[in-house]
Amino acid sequence: MAAEKQRPQTQLTPWNDPQAVPYIRIEHVTKKFGEFVAVNDVSLNIYRGELFSLLGGSGCGKTTLLRMLAGFETPTSGKIYIDGVDMADIPPYERPTNMMFQSYALFPHMTVEANVAFGLKQDGVKDPELKERVSSILELVKLTQFAKRKPHQLSGGQRQRVALARSLVKQPKLLLLDEPLGALDKKLREATQFELMNIQDRLGITFIVVTHDQEEAMTLSSRIGVMDAGEIVQIGTPQEIYEYPNNKMVADFIGSVNLFEGQIVEDESDHVLINSPDAGTDIYIDHGISSAPGAKVWVAIRPEKLHITKEDQQHDVNCMKGAVKGIAYMGNLSIYLIELDSGKQIKVTQPNQIRAAENAIDWDDRVTLTFHPNSPVALLS
Amino acid sequence: MARHMLWADKLTNFLLAIGIHPRWAVIIVPYLWLTLFFLIPFLIVLKISFAYSTIAQPPYTHINPDSDNGGISLNISDSYGRLINDWLYIGSYLNAIRMAAVSTVLCLLLGYPMAYGMARAKPSTRNILLMLVILPFWTSFLIRVYAWIGLLKNNGVINNILMSLGIIHDPIPMMNTDFAVYVGILYSYLPFMILPLYANLEKMDLSLLEAAADLGCKPLKAFFVITVRLSAPGIVAGSMLVFIPAVGEYVIPELLGGPNTQMIGRTLYNEFFSNRDWPTASAIAIAVLVLLVGPLMVFQRYQDKQMDGAE
How far A150 CA lies from chain B's nearest CA (Å)? Predict the structure, then answer.
């Protein structure tokens, strides 16, 4: 297959290779609107063929950063390089980027076909080639039969695919997607996520996706940059971000998490011991965090990493006791709301492996919660 | 609340009792209004246009079956025939169309940049600019047109300033020319062009222009391909609002125009009041109306199409 041949030879983890040359370099970029700092000293390297997500709540500066890459905003300071070229003096219409807008921004007076052809026409692509490229991209997004329709005659999902086709057809060096799946319902969103990954993989275009939806970022991305208040808080693969968040904000933003306040008792290279009245137990973690004893820390434990049992167990560490205050049955799993003896409420999820288990945990049951020493993460901020 | 309900119930029962569904009661008012003040006067004018001119009070013959001639006497050849045979009427009609068309184009050329500037201004400035466009309406139309006489006449403000600056030595004759009429129409009708254009341009989705730029379209080209194209409904609405009343304009050519500025409105006035030929005047009125219904219908169909195409 032709698409198979075009597939570039990308490394799986170029960011771990010190020899690899980043494709997009964002260096100390700051953007101010008046007094308001929208993006604060962001530096970021993105490699060819990556699908990089900028994740954060609204107003965290992710869209501003994207708009600076597209050329709609000029950085107050700092530099942006795409494929080694400084973008400072290059207007949007000359950049090797294309953007898929959150609102899709389809031209309402043009047919699907004309919308997709618009970009190619600006480059002076003439008819046999123009027709060929438009129809092949429409085929890719499965819109061939809607080619003659106007945008208002399409459903939300179809419009989204037109917007995608329009931004892909010029084969940009960098494709920017602003909340690409935001307007779609859950089922359609899941289907489109995989479609998007598939297309990205086939065309080998570098994607930067802006999203506030952590699930979307997790499934799509090769790497995620978590943003907060104009700054990048953490960059990593979805797994790194989820398992080893480097601060409370990231831990809390990605997935759900139980946070316990505590004090360092011992901090060795191979373990940490934390006293946490909050948890009602000492917490033993099997890796060091290099901090001073007595320092205040937060311990983050994901709900699915806690083990819940009605047996009354006794351990020196990593053992909490409490009562069940609520159960949410989700089908594949159940979420238990536990009130610890310290008064703190936490969440625990357990897969429902056995249908209608005899000894099931019920409301107001006394339970013991345990966890493996490698499950918690100690956070200093 | 209870009393209010009672009152409404009573009204409903009354309407039902006299055989009117309450739903119709709502639209009866505008229909009544249009019948009383548009349809009936129109029919009267239509009737007069088929009568003979006579020296009497009123100055036309009555059309009724039991007249002296013993039948209905319709006068078609006289009043309508004259419209076709006498070049005065066709000429002044064509002249009115030409002048209205030129004025419309000038209004568009002047109004589009103004509306565009307003629509892209800061929201706070926008309201001030909008106020300034509407402000002239606070003064009577007639007085505003009169004021132009003071500006345009030979010893008027413009000529005096130009002469005192030594730019010209003899006054430029501007009053009583077609030029003065164009100035008057342009000045009077400009807001009717600006307002629909502004309403249209203001609600335009600016991300479309970003999308165009992102796809490699330069700003000037994007202005024509996206902005102007999408403002077509505003352009059509504004042009109709200027063109249609400008065709029948009477006050401006009368006050500012010269003896050669024959527009259909002026001809109509002369027939009514100078010649006291009511049937011919009525025939002109009917003809102008019928000929203007054409562009109006085009406008209506365009609007329907737009509504259809709207999201």
Answer: 9
